Amino acid sequence: MHRRVGSLLLLLLLLAAGSSAASDGSSTKPQQGQPSNDVVLLITDTFADVIERQPGPAMVMFMIPDCEACHMLTPDLQKVAANLKGIATVGMVNCATVPSVRTCKAFGVHEFPRLLVFNTGTKLNPYTGGAMKDFDKYTGPPTARALAAAITAKLDDTQISHVSSSSPSWHEAFLQQQPKLAKVLLFTDKNASTVLYMGLSWSYARRLAFAEVRSSGEGAALLQQYGVAQMPTLLVVKTDGTHEVYAGPLKAAPLRAFLDVHALKEPLPEAAAGRGGPFGGADGAEALLGEVTLQPLQAANLTDIDGRDEMWLLAFYRAAEGATCLTELQQLQSLLQEVQGIVQYGSIDAAAAGLDTAQLQQYGVDAAALEQQGCQLQLVLLPHGKGKAAKGEYGRWSGPLDDAKALQSWVLEQVSEAISVCGAHVWRAQT
Hints:
Elements: H1 2-24, E1 40-42, H2 44-52, E2 58-63, H3 68-83, E3 89-94, H4 98-106, E4 114-118, E5 123-124, E6 131-132, E7 135-137, H5 144-152, E8 160-162, H6 170-176, E9 183-188, H7 195-203, E10 209-214, H8 218-226, E11 233-237, E12 243-245, H9 252-262, E13 295-297, H10 299-306, E14 312-317, H11 326-339, E15 344-349, H12 350-353, H13 357-362, H14 367-372, E16 378-382, H15 388-391, E17 395-396, H16 404-430
Parallel strand pairs: 1-3, 2-3, 8-10, 9-10, 13-15, 14-15
Antiparallel strand pairs: 2-4, 4-7, 5-6, 9-11, 11-12, 14-16, 16-17
Helix pairs in contact: 1-3, 3-5, 11-16
């Protein structure tokens, strides 16, 4: 029975894909022309747009119609797609069709089914200049629960700011950052971000800014300010300063309908991903002219960044009680527009993050100077690749903070060295 159901689902998926391709030659949007199914049918022309240029996680099954194991797996894949709809993308590539052959070859698929799990975020392919995503081959159990767990394991809270009771000006600073983005605030008593909220924060990356507020410290004051009477409560602070409280169920579909109203139609460009940026935007060199965002970070973000490949330029500061250092951060934000989006940019308040002297020194920060002049920003460039803390190859900018051209040249030099090292490693692996 399971075999027959799987075969029928797979047949319907393939018929839907064929019908869509015949009608307009494209299938770039999830569920287009197939409202009863949540698995996205992919071909070479749509794969990059649906998977590689999107910030959220994804799972893709490469299959052929004659594969019995593919038929058996299809009902579980459909169940995962339905359960994670709005949080992650689940797709399928039919390697027996001409429009998909190039993608199957590109990923080295020779046996079926082949399941690949794609990470969050998008980065620049240093060899093609296009967007690319890291991915892993799935080798776990062929069950819906295990498949879903493999996808959600890719989610993290790096797109979410967290209120800190030791940072009384956090709220004001968060609202001032990324002025073109509406701000999503989730008031919660949970100690960790949920899969749903992490998924949404990645899906709307560069289109909305996300934060969590807990019911202690400054969070208690914000509860009163926004009139929050129960947990959890989600609201959006619009760019004009007014806010709207979400009144529906905390489920992906209705939440997305609410957030779509407030999100930017197109994500802010991020040049580090090349074509389309890590979150969409302009093509190629045009993306370098896009708006740069200086992301406010917390201590937990440093741990997450350590496990990612992207290079980050971090601005360390120590805001005194009642201070924000907003003037200095805004000046840096303006400077970075001229430097352009070569790497990722973030700012971190050492006091709010609870970073001690040893931790600051680990990043090459002059802790004593930071203690004396907390709003005098110290810029540190984190290296390319995972395990940044173990590498310890942090670059410290010692030049002025009003010379965009000098800072840009320095960052480009560091990036060029990273790409050269990366290329050497790949060459050695191939020879």
